[in-house]
Specification:
It catalyses: a (3S)-3-hydroxyacyl-CoA + NAD(+) = a 3-oxoacyl-CoA + NADH + H(+). By secondary structure, the chain is of the alpha/beta class.
């Protein structure tokens, strides 16, 4: 069946797009729309045209799978020019999402009508792009510079009611009657005739552009696309429509040809791919998850609980000691209230979520839970004890999950008589904020348990990735390949600040030592100040435990801003001197080669061992769990950009054993 069909109803021609799943503007859709509009213009019986979509949504944008491939079919801007220049009025009828090229199509329609549930936006910036089919030039003519700049630079869609207020649509349709309401609207506008957006004056003031840049300076650090979007909107205020379009084209092509957009488009598909479990049918029946138990009311357990409460799922939270339980519950309330103060929740919503929380001092309270997540102290014996108790207490079929960040899930599962029901659900701190969830598949984990854990992650707004059982799973396993050489580099003469700066310049939120300070240097410390076997021992012996007590590799002020510490540097130097390694200048390039390349290498090892399903899953882990800059597409994508040959050569030069599959690629 053709992806664009027409239907004549009296003197109105309805053009219907049908290109599942999201009615993207694939080349045959562009061709179909152009043909249909020409048909309508040529037919003397037709007095107006309605452009509408079948399925769940209006056009959700250009077909991203076509990007980077040889052009096929008619030029999109020409098709849009045809609609805008039509001598008969064209009405865009919107449901679902009108996004990117979809909204640009709606913008060249002479009138727009949408159902109340519709959303309209230009999310190209999230793909490292800008609306490249006149969006940056037509939006300021319809909604004004302020709204256009905000929509283009942030990429967030607006609701239909907001769109009506802004003048982005002309009318709201009845939610269930778009087809008829659009027809009626088309009949009305026959008398008014067509009106081309390009002929409208640009409204509003460019002051908002500087404001947006200031407000988002931190968030946009390293990104090209937000600035290019704003430059185009600004150009609309200064140039003619034609020249503005040329400016937009040039900027669009620059972004499209660059590595940032390639990386962000890679991540768009990677994120969706991660949800798929190889070898399992998509429609595998899932286990119900209507009640959740969380063991441990510390930072992790509390953060995990918040995810479920926010989705209306009741949580029973268990702690051993009343005081810790009370503290944990109070922290959850405090966090919600802080969000409410920022306008994210109403007071009633906060109370509603808190009412779903049942604190308990007994594991027996978890007997009826569909899913229990253990978030206790990271110690195998403790975890085994908890799981063997859960085995006695929990109802048959309940999913028993461990939030362990590196322990062997199979060993934990073996402490129960139902290893098929055990799975790892590794959240990242702060668990109510970080988007990543590593779902660890044990040797005996049942397929429906794995699929349910993945689906549960999605339900609570996480990006879930399947990982195999190995030390540290995907994320922390690779992290250790960065932290170890970073420490070694200190022994050879680099400073924490130099190494961290290479990482933050690269786009990471923090470097290896800033991260260690945040996590706490005394984690796993033997607590004997006389025993100094590492730099960390030296720092701990001097009472430098990290951010928590204001001093670690750095000194921290009351706002937790770190500055290089003379005392820490002296401790490092003292220990360094005992290593007998000659002190030398370390270049930033060497820091990249020794701390980032080994991560890529470890990614290949992980794939070889089958501990990740695909390279793009590893990228998802690093982007959503550790803040790897999305414009660099994750370590595996970045490794490909750097080039396997260059990485292998450097790793071998530094004596790092190279994964066979990486070598084979070089
Ligand atoms: C653009 O328009 C540039 C213009 O300015 C023109 C310049 C010249 N293309 O997300 P879902 C696939 S740039 C191809 O799970 P949902 C997606 O991969 C574009 N494929 O569904 C997935 O495939 P699979 C601007 C696309 O209901 C399936 O559809 N537009 C596209 O949760 C379902 O997707 C955007 O950036 C596409 N454009 O959410 C919008 N979009 O099943 C991007 C989706 O094989 N899309 N697919 O994994 C979205 O934000 C969401 O998909 C949407 C639906 C909200 C529409």
């Amino acid at each position: 069946m053709s992806s664009v069909t027409t239907q004549a109803i009296d003197d109105i021609l309805v053009v219907l797009v049908n290109n599942p799943p999201v009615n993207a503007l694939s080349w045959h859709v562009r061709q179909g729309i152009a043909d249909a509009i020409e048909q309508g213009l040529a037919d003397p019986v037709v007095h107006a045209i309605v452009l509408r979509c079948e399925g769940t949504t209006f056009i959700a944008g250009a077909d991203i799978t076509e990007f980077g491939k040889p052009a096929q079919g008619p030029d999109f801007n020409k098709v849009l020019g045809l609609i805008e220049g039509a001598a008969k009025p064209v009405v865009g009828a919107i449901h679902g999402t009108a996004l990117g090229g979809g909204l640009e199509t709606a913008l060249v329609c002479h009138y727009r009508i949408a159902v109340p549930s519709a959303k309209l936006g230009v999310p190209e910036v999230k793909l490292g792009l800008l609306p490249g089919a006149g969006g940056t030039q037509r939006l300021p003519r319809i909604v004004g510079v302020e709204s256009a700049a905000t929509m283009c630079a942030l990429g967030e869609p607006v609701s239909a009611s907001k769109a009506l207020q802004m003048g982005l649509i002309d009318r709201l349709a009845n939610e269930n009657n778009l087809a008829d309401d659009a027809l009626a609207f088309a009949r009305e506008v026959i008398a008014t005739g067509p009106r081309a957006t390009r002929d409208l004056p640009v409204k509003g003031d460019v002051g908002v552009i500087d404001q947006l840049k200031q407000m988002n300076a931190r968030k946009w650090k390293g990104f090209e696309a937000p600035y290019a979007n704003l430059a185009c909107v600004e150009a609309a205020t200064k140039l003619s429509f034609e020249d503005g379009m040329k400016f937009e084209r040039t900027e669009f092509l620059k972004l499209m040809g660059g590595s940032q957009s390639a990386a962000q488009r890679h991540m768009f598909f990677a994120e969706r791919q991660a949800a798929k479990i190889d070898g399992l049918p998509k429609d595998l029946p899932l286990r119900p998850v209507n009640t959740v138990g969380v063991i441990g009311a510390g930072t992790m357990g509390g953060g995990i609980s918040m995810n479920f409460l926010a989705k209306g799922i009741p949580v029973t939270i268990v702690e051993m000691v009343q005081e810790n339980l009370d503290r944990g519950v109070a922290v959850i309330r405090k966090n919600y209230e802080a969000s409410a103060a920022k306008g994210r929740f109403t007071t009633e919503q906060v109370e509603g979520m808190m009412a779903l929380l049942t604190p308990s001092l007994s594991l027996d309270a978890l007997a009826g839970c569909d899913l229990v997540i253990e978030a206790v102290y990271e110690n195998m014996d403790v975890k085994k004890e908890v799981f063997s108790k859960l085995d006695q207490i929990c109802k048959p079929g309940a999913i028993l999950a461990s939030n362990t960040s590196y322990l062997n899930v199979d060993e934990i599962a073996a402490a129960t008589s139902r290893p098929q029901d055990v799975v790892g659900m590794h959240f990242f701190s702060p668990a109510n904020v970080m988007k990543l969830l590593e779902v660890v598949r044990g040797e005996k984990t049942a397929p429906d348990v794995l699929a349910t854990a993945m689906a549960t992650g999605k339900k609570i707004g996480k990006v879930a990735v399947v990982a195999g059982v190995c030390d540290g799973f995907i994320g922390n396993r690779m992290l250790s390949k960065r932290q170890q050489p970073a420490m070694q580099l200190l022994l050879e003469g680099a400073t924490p600040a130099q190494i961290d700066k290479v990482h933050t310049d690269f786009g990471m939120p923090m470097g290896p030592f800033q991260m260690s300070d945040l996590a706490g240097l005394d984690i796993g410390w033997h607590r004997d100040p006389a025993r100094i076997e590492s730099i960390r021992d030296g720092l701990c012996a001097a009472g430098r435990f990290g951010q928590k007590n204001g001093k670690g590799f750095y000194d921290y002020d009351e706002k937790r801003v770190g500055t290089p510490s003379a005392e820490a540097l002296a401790i490092i130097e003292e220990f360094r001197a005992t290593s007998n390694l000659p002190k030398r200048d370390i270049s930033d390039q060497e820091i990249v080669e020794r701390t980032l390349y080994p991560m890529v290498n470890e990614g290949y090892h992980i794939l070889e061992e089958g501990k990740a399903q695909r390279a793009s899953d590893i990228d998802v882990v690093w982007i959503y769990g550790y803040g790897w800059p999305i414009y660099r597409g994750g370590p595996m994508f970045w490794g490909d950009l750097e080039g396997a040959g260059k990485i292998v050569e450097a790793l071998e030069r530094h004596g790092v054993p190279v994964a066979d599959s990486l070598k084979a690629k070089a």
